[in-house]
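Weekly structure sync, notes
Attendees: PL, DS, HV (note-taker this week)

Item 1: Integral membrane protein
DS walked through the input record. Source organism listed as Kitasatospora albolonga. Sequence as pasted into the shared doc:
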Amino acid sequence: MAPAVPPPSPPPQNTGAALELLVHGVGGATPQEMLGDPRTVRVTGDATAAVYRRTEDAHGEKYPERYRDEPVAEAYCWSGLTSGNGSRALWLLLLPFMVVNLAHWMRPTATGRTRAVRLYGVVVRLVALSLTVLLTAAACEVALDLVAWQCAGTSACSERRSWLGFLSSHQGGWWSQPGRRLALAALVPAALVGLLWYLSNRTWSAYESQSPLDAADADACDPDGAEEAHGPGAADPSDDGRDPVPPALGRPGFWYGRRLVARLRAAHTAAGFLTVAAAVSGAAARHDRTAGSSVPQVFGAVIEGAIVVCAAVAVWVVCRRGRSERARDMRLDGALITYLPGSALVLLGLAVLHAGWSRPEWQSSGSLPGETAFRFLALGQGLLVVVLALVARSLYRRTPEPRTTLYGLGGPSVAMLACALGGVMTGGVAQRVADWLDGPGTPGMGEGSIIEGPPVLLSWQASVIPVLLLLLLAPVLYLTVRTARRARRMGPDIEAEYAPEPPDRARTRRIARIRATAALTDSAPWIVGVVSAATLLLGAAAVVGSWTSGEVPGRATDGAAAPVEALAEAAQSTGSWLIGFGFILFVASGRRAYRDASARRTIGILWDVGTFWPRAAHPFAPPCYAERAVPDLASRMCAWTATTKGRLIISGHSQGSVLAAAAVWQLPDTARRRVGLLTYGSPIERLYGRWFPAYFGAVPLLGLNRSVHCWRNLWRATDPIGGPVRLATDPDPGVDRGPLKDPLAYGRTTALPLPEPILGHSDYQADPVFAKERTALLEELGPRLPRQAAGGVSTQKSSGRSSG
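Item 1 (cont.): predicted structure, written out as tokens:
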């Protein structure tokens, strides 16, 4: 007879209180709202981000007998990192930089393709650098060309603007010479570049300088956890090859990219200053190469050559080094980050002095030749996006994941959108300023105009915007019809779900409409793909049109072509108005958010989603709040488990669930297996898994589930953001719980006499399943505190792993 197999020993005893660490989602929440109590106290943290408890729970660890049935609740509030004060609403103007930074993190999963991954990162960083040059070039176009060269050089324009009187060429003053006007106007774009450098440096110090856990912190987190980790009930990392590759978000240096941000900041600052220097010195050098110039042309040639060399160094710095994540890189390239922007600033100063040299014979007419620069920028951005698409597609074909957005082309599509946003902002500023300076006329169009206006390319780009909007009508109409049909098909299923309650057609239609609308989130990638592809093709057409014709669309040259020319002129006028309106909307939104707390919170939601990722491609993007929030959460979990040896559940809603998962990945292995993860309304797979497969794809999420002690994910069909985790394993790990019933009651009942709301993405705690699953997680983590039986004899409930 075979010997009896001894039963598995129970997991290590936890005699301390349990803790539930709550993390809110987008838009923020107060600790009073999260804890359901107006009386709260700050446990640790500062005014920007902190952990709070109810006042009565301030010292809960000292009285564990009070928390046998439910855990001590703590709330981590991080809304101050994104939507705290009004000045952050101005980050809206940095939207193109934020979008291109997202493209860096959207690369497909790669296995054994180190060179391709590096090439992907290099191309994204070059696209980001082109956006900095584009924004600076737009400022130069407005300040140098439209104001200092065209308007101040034309008496009809300068007379209308009294503040330009001292620059007017007809006043004969010291500043009336074109070179000196350009030198003075160069202060505007140079100040813009300096402001971006200052904001990037300041926000790093304020938000992203929080150091993550190091080896000493990890040892202190669980000094004797090695034995416990391999005890009964714990996951074995060597078990059938589970989680063989460490997740990227668990690397020690992932949330600390100080060295790369400093290098990129130096390169982009230098590129901005060099763009201004090239605009100033280029105009002066071109004049010096003409006959009769009083300044030797060798001066301009030397400055332009030095600008080219310095620009090459800036490009080399951008291409040379990417992120270093395997260890915290505390070093700084001091000489590089000092001398590179310093050299560019010196060259700008020399260019200003060169342009300010007296040239009495120099007269300004027409416009500065900036057309070629904008054409090469647009062409270069299009080529870089095409190369990025080829690299991304190659990576995807090597390791295909069916749920990946656009078959691996999500990153290139988003990079194209960033370029389009940069073009809209560039064209919007130039067109609106030109219209304002020209008065009742249209710049460059007809006898009523007094200035030439912005480059022709911007007019061609404006003319394709109405075409792009018309192309978008088809997918929008298709999705509208499909959603309506899906809602009608859902009716019988919804009534059967709430049977035997009597059907209510209005109630059924409302529930079905909300569920069908929530499913539109899964169609968003194709909308992005269509917009990006159309933008690339129409942008190429605009470049070709401006290059071949050399004039704005709609300028009639032939009577037979009059209808076509009229249509082109209408498209150009409409697009120009839309570009200007779009830029004004950007500015107005920032202004309103500065004054209105509700609007500031709405814009804060945009940053909550867009600035989760570190600045890896563009140093002038809005700061990454996760580089502060993730170390905060990981440190708090480590400190509490090391001090109390108790059970811990980190409970995250919406974006808070992504922060919770990232913080769990940062924990040491032994500590991670003593933590339970509860997520609800979570976009961790539906959005992050599809758009960022290399970091939240199927393999990393499966590894997270196998390394953490236990995990539950709650979701609703009415939630447009949250969804299931979809861990495809055999057997099913049982992480997902849903779809939860929403609303909880179809009609009026004795227990719920008033109509129940459809909650969608909010109030998951109101569902009884939430408390049930939280209790199940606590039981899986370990037994409750022993109760005192009659006569003073302690008894203890047996506990096992809950089936959920």
